[in-house]
Amino acid sequence: MKAKRIIIFVLSIFVFLGAILLFKSLLVKNDGSDTSNEKNSSKKTEASAYSGVNIVSEVFDETTFHIAIHYPKFKDEQLNQGIADYVSESKQNFLNEVKNNKEFLKENIAELNISFNIYPVIDNVYSIVFSNESYVVGANGTQSTKVFLVDIHNNQYIQQTAILNDNEQNRDKIYELLRNAFEQSEQYSLYFFKEDLKNWIEDEDNHFSNMYLTDKSVVFKFNEYEVTAGAAGTPEISIPFDQFKEFLTDEWKNKLAVEVEPDHQTVPPKVNNGEDSEKPSDKGASTGGKRVALTFDDGPHPKNTEKILKLLDKYNAKATFFMLGNRVDFYPNIVKDIASKGHELGNHTWSHKDLTTLSNDEVKKEVKQTNEAILKAVGEYPTVFRPPYGAINDRVDEVSGMPATLWTIDTLDWKSHDPKAILSIVKENVKDGSVILMHDIHATTVEALEPVLKFLKEEGYECVTVSNI
Ligand code: NI
User: Which residues form the NodB homology domain (predicted)?
Assistant: First the structure.
């Protein structure tokens, strides 16, 4: 009798534990913003500024490789499949490379970065342009691109041959158009091979699959080495609609002509819109006491950055945000919030590539595009610059045109995802003038921030922007 009772008791504990686990797993599934519980990897889905488009960010940090992948996600699963296939194939190729080069990866870390730009074309039609960058071993990484044209109303991909009439005569003319553009381009003319362009245009499997649209022009995006020397990176040639009209199918001539306003220029950013004129400034507000600079990299992030701003306000702290241009482009309003609260704006490049592996032109582009995105969002340029991974050499330092700001304390928040560990690293290392590295893309960093701010306050530190250190 007693034994039976014990069995029932033990069984009911198992049932109880099982119910808790089930409940927990349901909770995790329901929270779309934080799906990872593995320490070295994370996968997040967030809304973007473009309706019907979410952004998925996947990060894997292993001892021999780092992977950072960003891709769009739509409501329709079939539409997602094509992009998911592309992403998983790229990832698999990279992992195979890593596996084949295991013995060389003891000192180097292999890297895969997949990011994308999104261009609205007409209602419900977007161009998605992937940039795929990998580095395993050897002197140079490889870069490639991939274009998807999506119609999120009809849930289908648009083939380039539905947009332009792909026939012999048009191919010849488009060749001439592109050849001229390359030869006249300051950026590419030195590296251009017209024979390669000729082969490219005659390739029967090509069908202009690298062509995409913006709201003003037709753009041809080439892979590295496809029609230029490697120094040109992945070149692109943009041709305004009115110069491309004769090649368009009637359907698309109509669709685009309706939307195209003649001479429509992007509105230049307003330098001061009056609203933010009461911007607080801590410049020169020196108290002579101990100071630290909190810095947040890789954002802005729609949820976490806003939470961080609230906490900083609560503790009367100023910080510096080193932002990625492509995320600034997605979340301009968060950048506005950062600026209006008196924090410092930092450039962390457009797509988080290791700048030391890029050509001079690419480094310039990574920095400049980001400066322009921040200017467009808030009407002012960022004042500081931090290269991704802290990777810098003399060449990058010179070419970037902005002095690099690194850090003195790495909280390892991206690795530990542990608020206690983050706090204890700060406690053990902080001193007057410390520059503390954190990342506003992680929810666990937000959790760590309040205890960190509390501790710094108790110890008599003033939190200032990095320029004020
Ligand atoms: Ni970073």
Answer: 290-464
What is the Cα–Cα distance from 300 to 333, expressed in whole angstroms? 10
- pLDDT higher than threshold 90 for residue 376: yes
Report CA(208)–ligand 1 centroid distance (Å): 35
| Encoded tokens for 230 | 């490697």
CA of residue 390 to ligand 1 center, whole Å: 8
pLDDT tens for residues 329-360?
Answer: 888 999 999 999 999 999 999 988 889 989 99
CA of 249 to the centre of ligand 1 (A): 44
Quick one: tokens of 461? 């530190």
pTM for this prediction: 0.53
Cα angle 312, 316, 322 (rounded to 5 degrees) comes to 40
Q: Which residues, 6 or more positions from 168, have their beta carbon under 8 angstroms from its beta carbon?
A: none
State the amino acid at position 274 in one-letter form.
G
Residues lying with their CB under 5 A of ligand 1, a single-atom ion: 297-298, 388
In this predicted structure, what is the pLDDT of residue 414?
84
209 burial via Cβ count (<10 Å: 0-12, 13-18, 19+): middle
Q: Is the CB of residue 442 less than 8 Å from the CB of residue 413?
A: yes
Q: Which two tokens stand for residue 312?
A: 């900083």
Candidate list 297, 298, 329, 413, residue with the active-site label: 297
pLDDT tens, residue by residue, 209-226 = 999 999 889 999 999 889
Q: Are 136 and 127 in contact (CB under 8 A)?
A: no
439 given a catalytic annotation: yes
* Active-site pick, 348, 417, 439, 442: 439
CA atoms of 343 and 468, how far apart (whole Å): 11
Q: Can 329 be counted among the known catalytic residues?
A: no
